Amino acid sequence: MVEREIGAPWEGFLVEPAGGGSAAVLVLGGSSGRVEAERCRLLAARGLTALSIRWFGGPGQAAGIREIPLETFTAAVDLLSAAGPRRIGVLGTSKGAEAALLLAVADPRIDAAIALAPTSVVWEGFGAGPDGSTGPGRSSWTWKGEPLPFVRYDRASWPPPGRPAAFLGMYESSREGYAAAAIDVAASRAELLLVAGGDDLMWPSARFAAELAARRDVRLVTHPRAGHRVRLPGEPPLPRSPIHQYGGTPEADAALGTAAWPDVLELLAAR
Length: 271
What we know:
Elements: E1 2-6, E2 12-16, E3 23-28, H1 37-44, E4 49-53, E5 68-69, H2 71-81, E6 87-93, H3 95-106, E7 112-116, E8 141-143, E9 146-147, H4 168-173, E10 191-197, H5 205-213, E11 219-223, H6 250-268
Parallel strand pairs: 3-4, 3-6, 5-8, 6-7, 7-10, 10-11
Antiparallel strand pairs: 1-2, 2-4, 8-9
């Protein structure tokens, strides 16, 4: 494999399989802001050119997830397209899954979108936006300079401080603007794979996946005891967080990833 760091216009990591590949995938992390280098290596070992980028929190970027331009991701697709793959996919986790689904709607070059622990709607942003603002009531995303409709957080249901937080109840009770904020996956030409755990304590990803599946044909893989952090085959367990409750168990999270893995490879592979 050939690996290289990407320095501009964002921090990134690109892995190309030996001899090149005919399919490519953009890999998006969640609200950790992590560049998913190991996941890229895992996919490159299966013959895919894989690129992961830091889409917030880097130099010249918003510090938080607030009014992030979707053009951040279309620029990454530009980079992947320059190599001439026959098929381009996007794989995102959690907040990165939200971005992946929106990218699949906005960019017709996306052939396949894989959403691990997805949402079915656009959510209110958090942290500081591109202008430094931290005030409430702004979307997580913009497209062509316009903020996308979003669901406002029910702050009365925000988890109490002082212990690892489970945000499930807050997301379940947040309903203001829900219909208008629906991600219009029916408008996407991409094939969709949704992977969700029934014991997700971060947000109700299994319910969100069912809502997405009601809008169009998708592939849906679930596990009743898995949580928010889906583990693909070959990925190590993630350490327990002192800040958040993600639900599931390492065994169930891995079982969900193993069950989804054949579909992941089939959708991303060149046809």
